[in-house]
Design a protein that fits this description.
Layout lengths: L2 E2 L5 E2 L14 H7 E4 L21 H4 L39 E3 L7
Parallel strand pairs: 3-4
Antiparallel strand pairs: 1-2
Keywords: DNA-directed RNA polymerase, Nucleotidyltransferase, Transcription, Transferase
Protein name: DNA-directed RNA polymerase
GO molecular function: DNA binding; DNA-directed RNA polymerase activity
Length: about 110
């Protein structure tokens, strides 16, 4: 099924003959990971901010607000790429949270 774009060009979706899916090794998962999730907590009920080392940790996954670290020491795009010395959060776009991964160490590798 093709669709017409704004420039009246016909959009053709990509087609594949085959796809191969495999399991990632523990080493590969650690390579992709930005940090280890140590706590089961998600969001602090008082501050409504992600818990440090929890499932939504800003240090691991990135900031919840664009161009702002967790503690608020660095704000605005001028600090792009800076890692806060207080909270350890990199100042970047919040959309990186969709791309970054963390890992959980278990007693035995799975």
């Amino acid at each position: 099924m093709s669709e017409t774009t704004a420039k009246n060009e016909v959009y053709q979706p990509m087609t594949f003959d085959a796809i191969k899916i495999g399991l990632a090794s523990p080493e590969k998962i650690r390579e992709w990971s930005r940090g280890e999730v140590l706590k089961p907590e998600t969001i602090n009920y008082r501050t409504l901010k992600p818990e440090r080392d929890g499932l939504f940790c800003e240090r691991i996954f990135g900031p919840t607000k664009d161009w702002e670290c967790h503690c608020g020491k660095y704000k605005k795009i001028r600090y792009k790429g800076v890692v806060c010395d207080r909270c350890g959060v990199e100042v970047t776009k919040s959309s990186v949270r969709r791309e970054r991964m963390g890992h959980i160490e278990l007693a035995a590798p799975v």
